[in-house]
Input
Amino acid sequence: MSTIVAPTKFDALVSATRAAVSSDADWAGTAELVAAELERRLPTPDMLTDEQRTGDPKRYRSHLLHTEPDGSFSIVALTWRPGQETPIHDHVTWCVFGVIQGIEYEELYTLDERGEHLVEAGSSATETGEVSGFAPPGDIHRVRNIGDTTAISIHIYGTDVSRIGSSVRRSYDLPILAP
Ligand SMILES: [Fe+2]
Output
């Protein structure tokens, strides 16, 4: 006798993302479709273990929640203690993210013509319940928890992050110019 297990809300997010990714839109179009699905099915922090929700005093932590078998997307939870941040970086593919606890602050940059400096290109805050996304090129950014509580966000990347290690294309350790 087999037992039928009811699909969870997370299973529904995986299925909806699969459908959006297989629409064969370009990166920007795919990111828009996936963002609409994540907005509808944004997980809650209780889908993570206590340990995953707690974060790490040393650095922000990444928890791989799902890798699509054909490598077309991955779903990751990031946990940030107050003040924790990424290096300035960009990505090999589109990314959609939703904040499920706290607040995430993103600074955007462009590379100057000679590739020797970064130029500030704006910033935005994403609060609990909000979803955002982007598609390269033009996605050089730094993310930081500017709140005074631990922040948690769900990120969906258009690649198999377990195979390539991360979706980061490169980090930028360059002087920053005001625009
Ligand atoms: Fe990023």
The CA atoms of residues 118 and 176 lie 5 Å apart. The chain has four helices and eleven strands. Residues 89, 91, 141, 143 surround fe (ii) ion (CB under 6 Å).
